[in-house]
Request: fold
Amino acid sequence: MIMKQVRLSQKAKEQLSRLKGKTGIKNWNILCRWALCYSLSENTVPTDIPIVADSNLEMSWFTFGGEYYELYEALVKAWCIKMELPTDDDTVAKYFRLNMERGIAHLGGTGFIKSIDDLVGLAIKEA
Reply:
């Protein structure tokens, strides 16, 4: 398990709130999964900036990952290996957070997601 609790920045929470409205997806954890996978697919290392977990949006690791929580941990570890980064727990947790925040920023901060169809289209295009 990468971490016990996942807590987001206030900015990420606001971006997720807008995404919830645009897509109709009601659960934070589902949007966070989309954001993480989107960021991991970019094949670049996110900027290493401190993430201030200053929002009241918090979920357990098991809530974030659902029944597939082990898969999300494996995806982040595989990404770390691909980027030639260590796979110790601290590094994996750090890049999980950086990738999730970056994914939320891209999905929530750009104007290209206007509906759930845009989100699905993005996933299909990337595949």
